[in-house]
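ingest -> validate -> predict -> emit
validate: passed (alphabet ok, no gaps, 125 aa)
predict: started
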Amino acid sequence: MTDIGREWAERARKAQEAINELGAGPVAGRPARYTPPLESGEQALRLPEVAAIYAKARGSSRPGAMTELNLALLLAALHDGGVTLGAYDGRKALWLAGWEPELCAAVAGWIGRAHAAGREDDGDG
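emit:
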């Protein structure tokens, strides 16, 4: 395994730990694919996933806690969608996780809804 591969594997492990700390389900007990289309930032702030990330990050003294939680949300959506990440993909997911939870929840929702729509088109959903 390359150094980049080891680094990404370690980040993915930490993100999984963050998911586990938040409780059952990818973040708040519901898969990201059920995140509705968002009409405003205020609506995004009211999502259980976003509220859970902010609450957990506020309660943590560790630097980077919010990024890890955002990454956990994104990785859960990608995993549920059957997406495999390469090293470059992983670095971009980590970059995206550095933004606010509302943005990460919107992207996770897009991934989940696209996956669900694809399953419906294939007759699986």
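The chain has a mean pLDDT of 79.
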